[in-house]
UniProtKB/TrEMBL annotation:
Its EC number is 1.3.1.-. InterPro entries: Aldolase_TIM, DUS-like_FMN-bd, DUS_fam, DusB-like, tRNA-dHydroUridine_Synthase_C, tRNA_hU_synthase_CS. PANTHER family: TRNA-DIHYDROURIDINE(47) SYNTHASE [NAD(P)(+)]-LIKE (PTHR45846). It is an enzyme of class 1 (oxidoreductase). It catalyses: a 5,6-dihydrouridine in tRNA + NADP(+) = a uridine in tRNA + NADPH + H(+); a 5,6-dihydrouridine in tRNA + NAD(+) = a uridine in tRNA + NADH + H(+). Belongs to the dus family. GO terms for molecular function: flavin adenine dinucleotide binding; tRNA binding; tRNA dihydrouridine synthase activity. This is tRNA-dihydrouridine synthase. Residues 24-328 form the DUS-like FMN-binding domain. Catalyzes the synthesis of 5,6-dihydrouridine (D), a modified base found in the D-loop of most tRNAs, via the reduction of the C5-C6 double bond in target uridines. It comes from the Bacteria. Keywords: Flavoprotein, FMN, NADP, Nucleotide-binding, Oxidoreductase, RNA-binding, tRNA processing, tRNA-binding. The active site is at residue 112.
Length: 387
């Protein structure tokens, strides 16, 4: 717990000014525009990044990929994250974003630890191959720089304790012209388990001239302040900590302005946020209430985390098929029930360790990709165009 005020200075990403450098990290299936809008309404003038869009799917004009690229008119900065392994495909996706004026900022995903991604050399596995990593970043920055669109990258510490990559990766993204880098202070092997090693963030801050955003285990506003105090990072990126708690951004804004006020909603207040979220999802899904309510189910579990509402109530929400069903269940909740402080500072979402790091055969034998490896990787992108 940090008691002293810790200040953050504005961060410049190309022509974009981030007055309060607090970032909503892209999370698959979570940070579509309805959730981003909720977070931005609560929070400071930060950066709210869309969930990862697969470059191959975008190039193939997959409808879901285009849905994920949608932004609400209220969003101040249209921030999009691209994922891919083949530099040519990611470059083509970047061209589509630039030519279609689809976003104001592009983030590149080199932090995903999910096996279906890393087993084909993507996400947090990719920086191990220095040539492939540098080429991909170079191609995207070259495309985006002509349009004045800043590019950033999100990375992890490395594959495991014996195969770290963050310092080399940080220098490469800086040299290739990225405006900033975000470090999730875990290895791929650590997945989301234990506590992230914030000292690694401090090391990267010392090694680079571009802004470094710290990510990992920010569950409260005090955690955000502590990370900045301990590492000197230019800003913080919030992932799992805001799941079911979009108001966390309000708390963090207060913390960095020296305000001790924290938002502690009653269950009734949480319910009203849930209804708004569900209605925004209906709009996101072009009026399809059933899709919206089904998508809302995971959010309901996070919103109700810690509240003693009982298993029957939770099951009832999982059986909802319309907004009316959701509103009916929310009306039955004890409206004045206080927010459960016991879970406020505890991990949310994924917390387990990965049992094994899945990599392409022979991936760790060399820091460069062979022709054979490239043929295998580029012929079958780890996340294809079908979604």
């Amino acid at each position: 717990m940090v008691n002293q005020q810790v200040a953050l200075s504005p961060v410049q990403l190309g022509s974009i000014t981030i007055p309060t450098p607090v970032v909503l990290s892209p999370m698959a299936g979570v940070t579509n525009w309805p959730f981003r809008v909720l977070c931005e309404e609560f929070g400071p003038d930060g950066l709210y990044v869309a969930e990862m869009v697969t470059a191959r799917a975008l190039v193939a004009k997959n409808p879901k990929a285009f849905r994920l690229c949608r932004f609400h008119s209220s969003e101040r900065v249209r921030s999009l994250q691209l994922y891919g392994v083949d530099p040519v495909i990611v470059e083509q996706a970047a061209h589509m974003v630039v030519d279609g004026q689809m976003a104001d900022h592009i983030d590149l995903n080199f932090g995903c630890p999910v096996p279906k991604v890393t087993r084909r050399g993507g996400g947090s596995a990719l920086p191990w191959k220095l040539d492939l990593f540098a080429e991909l970043v170079h191609r995207v920055v070259s495309v985006c720089s002509t349009a004045g669109i800043p590019v950033t990258a999100k990375i992890r510490v490395g594959i495991d304790a014996d195969h770290t990559t963050f310092l080399e990766a940080g220098h490469i993204v800086q040299e290739e012209g990225c405006a900033a880098v975000t470090l999730h202070a875990r290895t791929t092997a650590e997945y989301y388990g234990g506590h992230s090693d914030w000292s690694r963030i401090g090391q990267l801050v010392q090694a680079l001239d571009i802004p470094v955003f710290g990510n990992g285990d920010i569950w409260t506003a005090e955690d955000a302040a502590a990370m900045v105090a301990q590492t000197g990072c230019a800003g913080v990126a919030i992932g799992r900590g805001c799941q079911g708690r979009p108001w966390l951004f309000s708390d963090i804004a207060h913390a960095f302005s020296g305000n001790s006020e924290r938002f502690e909603p009653t269950l009734g207040q949480v319910g009203r946020i849930m209804i708004l979220h569900a209605r925004l999802l209906v709009e996101f899904y072009d009026g399809d209430e059933q899709m919206a309510v089904h998508d809302m189910r995971k959010h309901v579990a996070w919103y109700l985390k810690g509240f003693p509402v009982g298993g029957s109530t939770r099951r009832a929400f999982m059986e909802c098929e319309s907004i009316a069903d959701v509103e009916k269940q929310i009306a039955l909740l004890p409206q004045e029930q206080a927010y459960p402080e016991s879970v406020a500072a505890k991990p949310r979402g994924r917390v387990r360790y990965a049992k094994k790091v899945h990599l392409p055969y022979g991936w760790l034998d060399s820091r460069a990709t062979s022709d054979e490896e490239r043929k295998a990787l580029f012929g079958d992108d780890p996340m294809d165009a079908s979604y």
